[in-house]
């Protein structure tokens, strides 16, 4: 919505302006009053015609002129200007401003209250003035309301006040004019309320050329005032029932009017006669109006009119004589006759003129020999005879829209200069019509949507760029040969079965949902994207079209989703980057030789049996959605992730992925040791290996893990393994390789380095350890690089034999603990029921995996003693899961375990640890969910479990006593422990406690949480001995509680 700013000043300010004008005249300067020196100079430079102060915009009731209302002279007159540099001083007025809500007497609506009030206040001897006022719509009056400045503004009496404020800014009028040229009318009104200079600058006629009164209730008097203020306005917009009276005032007042826009009101015949008085008028736009009385003929004669638009108007007949008219639109105008005398007319729009007969259309169009564009869509009376005469009379016609014209077939119509042809829903267009279209050699755009009788299109148009064929029910054959084709849309043509396109410029082809398409031939050198989704009849021959031997050498993206007739897909393309075969359920064989292929989608290809990706540029691949995959071959030099989860019949897999880091082969029940060995040899960088539910993997397959020096996660859950010795030995070899690499680096950095050890260094080692140290100190650093390979065969036997002294040895050699060389491991052994206690003894007796951080032994068969030793010795564990261990009876980390048992367990470590010291546990997360035989949990402070954060003992039905003292424990779950009776907690940082469905009484819970000073969440739902009435007692026992969940309410 646009706002209009009208300005005024008092008589005192007018006198100041006149005095300033006299001074400027004496000084010989050509100064325009109210605009400042800068504007005057600008006017001279651009030869502007500036009216005299007494004539500019007229006056309001004989009191003020627009120039007087636009005064920009600051207090002090010429003293505040530097005339030689045309610099204007900006004086900030900080006088008190107040707002008035008084109403005027003009009779306009409330939304023009500002206008009425100010008009009523513009009378002689009025000492107040308004910075700005606007003709605003509803809701905007408050934003741009009247601002009243106190008496004496600009007088000498206020000069001292301004000087006291001392806010001055050098801004030339030229600079303000340039800045304000970027503002719209609402912001100009805001700027006008800043100061006199800005008020004057914002009122410049350059900013008020377009007077927009659309959707405004404005009286004739108000409109006349605006026209007098801005007589040089060039554009006026009016709408509403009073447009006739207003536009007649505009025609009589605005002699420079160039654009006139009218709407939603009646216009009498006299208006069209009066238009001759607007000699500068170039554009006339009338919409949704009644012309004349609606039944008489309207004559429009104008010598300079260039653009005419009569949209949705009501008139019976119209005659236009405009020798300069170039464009004309009569769209949706209800008329029966039109006569044109416009020899220069280039664009004619008579669309949706339903009452216009064929003869009238023919006469109108043929009378305009310069016609270039013709829109006669929805003119149901148009015939081929009319088109033929138009083609003969308008030789330059390049745009034709004949959509929804059922009587045309283009028979014998020749339009050689046509570039755009739109024939939507033309029932007469058939395959025979293509002969006429073929003569339009310059055609660039062809649209044939909903041509129900069209069966085939065969065109050879060298300049054709765009073609549309949508919802053509009988369309069956498309044959295009055009070198410039860049866009083609063929959709919902159920009978289409053959497509042959030759186009060098086509980059994207979309042929979705063409159920009958069986043959596709493309010779498109620039084609990059093809979408053939849901073309259910496409056969395997489509692969040849998009391979290197086909005609699309630049193809990058191919979508064949839901093409259910494809059974064997073979692509060999050096350019293909993305391939989508989602939902192609019939595919059984897939062979891709696409070295640059980066993305492939196989969702829904659940019958795929053989797949070959050799070579491809894939970084990741998910084949877990192919449950029938039997043979797999992959050669991907950059692949890092491969998922084979659920490929239950996969028996042969050849992987050559040197950068592969993650392999998930879960539930590959037929994956053999030979396959695993070949994979680990060709993919040495694997870090995560998941072999869950792979029962065919045995010791031979595990021995191949020695090639995976970066292995950090190994999942052997639900397997039939009975021995983990190959896993432990492979880990040792990983460490040896790392030692060897570090030795090599040391050897390169210092080829003459030798190590010497005092007696203290080896006093606790045996003879073999001393010999090993001597070997390192005397020989290893002088070996050649090629000799270091021997280290891999020498050290394993020695290190295994000297496992007790290896920590000390590495510390002596490298000056640091062995933990610096270890790889952090995650080992998952869920439901490995054939692993015995002796199988895991190397973990807690021999220290086989000193860097093991996460261990999952859920649903295993470990005995109670093995579990206790594991918990006591593997202090480096951070995450341990013992869910469902039926042999676990107690979790007791009390003095007995720490004293006696630890002494026996660590006897082989007597050279490293003192017997009286208990190691600090790093355990953070302990899960013992569903252990049916566990009865007691005792974790005292002496157990050194300061790192324990999460403890989950839920679903342990026989658990009766829990005594936990962990300083950092934050989450404890005892839900569904129905036998729980004793609960002792000394956990100052516990924040969440879950006791759902526990048979524990209120007193025990109250005593337990009283020592948990940071507890926020307590869940006691379905606890029969705890009622919802006890929530107050629980909150009193633990004031930090924020949420208590009970079975009856949530608080």
TrEMBL record:
CDD domains: F-box_FBXO41. InterPro entries: F-box-like_dom_sf (IPR036047), F-box_dom (IPR001810), FBL15-like (IPR055312), Leu-rich_rpt_Cys-con_subtyp (IPR006553), LRR_dom_sf (IPR032675). Residues 165-211 form the F-box domain. PROSITE patterns: FBOX (PS50181). It comes from the Eukaryota. Residues 24-60 are annotated as: Disordered. Residues 49-59 have a biased composition (Polar residues). Pfam families: F-box-like. SUPFAM superfamilies: F-box domain (SSF81383), RNI-like (SSF52047). Keywords: Membrane, Transmembrane, Transmembrane helix. The chain crosses the membrane at residues 781-802, 809-827. This is F-box domain-containing protein. It comes from Sphenostylis stenocarpa.
């Amino acid at each position: 919505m646009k706002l209009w700013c009208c300005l005024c000043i008092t008589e005192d300010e007018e006198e100041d302006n006149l005095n300033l004008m006299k001074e400027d005249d004496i000084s010989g300067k050509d100064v325009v009053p109210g605009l400042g020196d800068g504007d005057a100079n600008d006017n001279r430079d651009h030869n502007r015609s500036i009216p005299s102060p007494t004539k500019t915009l007229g006056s309001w009731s004989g009191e003020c002129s627009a120039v007087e209302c636009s005064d920009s002279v600051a207090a002090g007159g010429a003293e505040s200007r530097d005339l030689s540099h045309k610099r204007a001083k900006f004086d900030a007025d900080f006088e008190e401003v107040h707002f008035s809500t008084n109403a005027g007497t003009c009779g306009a609506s409330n939304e023009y209250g500002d206008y009425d009030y100010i008009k009523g206040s513009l009378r002689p001897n009025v000492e107040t003035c308004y910075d700005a006022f606007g003709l605003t719509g509803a809701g905007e009056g408050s934003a741009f309301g009247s601002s009243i400045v106190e008496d004496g503004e600009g007088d000498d009496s206020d000069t001292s006040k301004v000087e006291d404020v001392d806010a001055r800014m050098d801004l030339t009028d030229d600079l303000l004019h340039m800045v304000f040229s970027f503002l719209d009318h609402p912001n100009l009104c805001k700027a006008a309320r800043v100061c006199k200079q800005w008020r004057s600058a914002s009122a410049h006629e350059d900013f008020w050329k377009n007077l927009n009164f659309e959707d405004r209730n404005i009286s004739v008097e108000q409109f006349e005032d605006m026209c007098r203020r801005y007589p040089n306005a060039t554009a006026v917009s009016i709408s509403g029932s009073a447009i006739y009276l207003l536009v007649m005032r505009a025609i009589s007042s605005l002699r420079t009017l160039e654009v006139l826009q009218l709407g939603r009101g009646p216009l009498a015949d006299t208006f069209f006669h009066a238009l001759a008085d607007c000699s500068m008028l170039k554009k006339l736009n009338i919409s949704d109006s009644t012309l004349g009385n609606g039944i008489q003929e309207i004559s429009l004669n104008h010598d300079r009119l260039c653009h005419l638009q009569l949209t949705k108007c009501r008139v019976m007949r119209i005659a236009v004589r405009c020798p300069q008219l170039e464009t004309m639109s009569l769209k949706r105008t209800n008329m029966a006759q039109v006569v044109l005398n416009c020899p220069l007319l280039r664009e004619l729009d008579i669309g949706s003129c339903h009452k216009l007969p064929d003869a009238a259309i023919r006469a109108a169009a043929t009378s305009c020999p310069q016609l270039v564009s013709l829109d006669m869509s929805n003119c149901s009376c148009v015939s081929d005879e009319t088109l033929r005469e138009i083609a003969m009379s308008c030789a330059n016609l390049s745009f034709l829209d004949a959509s929804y014209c059922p009587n045309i077939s283009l028979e014998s119509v020749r339009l050689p200069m046509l570039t755009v042809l739109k024939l939507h829903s033309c029932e007469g267009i058939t395959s025979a019509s293509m002969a006429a279209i073929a003569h339009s050699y310059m055609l660039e755009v062809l649209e044939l949507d909903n041509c129900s009788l069209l069966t085939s299109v065969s065109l050879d148009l060298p300049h054709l760029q765009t073609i549309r064929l949508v919802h053509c029910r009988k369309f069956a054959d498309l044959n295009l040969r055009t070198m410039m084709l860049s866009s083609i849309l063929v959709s919902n043509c159920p009978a289409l079965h053959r497509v042959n396109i030759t186009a060098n410029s086509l980059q994207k082809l979309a042929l979705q949902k063409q159920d009958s398409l069986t043959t596709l031939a493309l010779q498109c050198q620039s084609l990059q994207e093809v979408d053939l989704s849901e073309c259910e009849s496409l056969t395997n021959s489509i692969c040849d079209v998009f391979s290197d031997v086909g005609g699309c050498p630049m193809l990058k993206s191919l979508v064949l989703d839901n093409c259910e007739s494809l059974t064997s897909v073979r692509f060999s393309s050096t350019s293909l980057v993305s391939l989508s075969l989602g939902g192609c359920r019939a595919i059984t064989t897939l062979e891709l030789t696409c070295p640059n292929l980066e993305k492939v989608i196989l969702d829904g290809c659940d019958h795929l049996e053989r797949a070959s990706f050799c070579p491809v540029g894939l970084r990741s691949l998910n084949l877990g959605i192919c449950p029938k995959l039997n043979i797999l071959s992959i050669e991907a030099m950059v692949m890092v992730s491969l998922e084979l989860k659920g490929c239950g019949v996969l028996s042969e897999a050849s992987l050559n992925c040197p950068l592969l880091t993650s392999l998930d082969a879960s539930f590959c029940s037929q994956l053999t040791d030979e396959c695993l060995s070949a994979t680990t040899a060709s993919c040495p960088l694997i870090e995560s290996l998941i072999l869950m539910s792979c029962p065919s993997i045995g010791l031979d397959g595990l021995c191949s893990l020695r090639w995976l020096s970066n292995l950090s996660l190994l999942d052997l859950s639900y397997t039939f393994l009975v021995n983990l010795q190959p896993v432990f030995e492979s880990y040792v070899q990983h460490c040896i390789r790392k030692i060897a690499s570090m030795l090599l680096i040391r050897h390169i950095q210092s080829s003459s380095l030798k190590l010497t050890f005092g007696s203290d260094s080896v006093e606790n080692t045996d003879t073999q350890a001393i010999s090993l140290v001597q070997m390192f100190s005397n020989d290893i650093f002088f070996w050649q690089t090629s000799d270091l390979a021997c280290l891999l065969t020498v050290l394993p036997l020695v290190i295994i034999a000297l496992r007790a002294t290896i920590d000390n040895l590495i510390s002596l050699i490298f000056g640091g603990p062995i933990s610096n060389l270890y790889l952090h491991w995650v080992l998952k052994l869920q439901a490995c029921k054939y692993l015995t206690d002796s199988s895991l003894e190397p973990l807690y007796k021999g220290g086989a995996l000193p860097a093991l951080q996460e261990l999952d032994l859920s649903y295993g068969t470990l005995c109670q003693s093995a579990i206790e030793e594991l918990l006591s010795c593997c202090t480096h564990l951070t995450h341990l899961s013992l869910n469902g261990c039926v042999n676990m009876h107690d979790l007791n980390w009390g003095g007995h375990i720490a004293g006696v048992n630890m002494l026996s367990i660590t006897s082989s470590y007597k050279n490293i640890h003192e017997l009286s010291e208990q190691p600090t546990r790093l355990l953070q997360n302990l899960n013992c969910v569903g252990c049916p035989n566990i009865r007691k949990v005792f974790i005292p402070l002496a157990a050194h479990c300061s790192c324990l954060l999460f403890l989950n003992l839920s679903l342990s039905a026989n658990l009766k006593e829990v005594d936990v003292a962990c300083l950092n424990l934050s989450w404890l779950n005892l839900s569904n422990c129905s036998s729980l009776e004793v609960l002792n907690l000394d956990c100052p940082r516990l924040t969440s406690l879950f006791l759902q469905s526990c048979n524990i009484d209120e007193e025990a819970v109250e005593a337990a949480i009283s020592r948990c000073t940071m507890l926020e969440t307590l869940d006691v739902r379905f606890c029969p001995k705890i009622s919802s009435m006890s929530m107050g007692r629980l909150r009193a026992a633990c004031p930090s509680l924020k949420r208590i969940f009970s079975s009856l309410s949530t608080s």
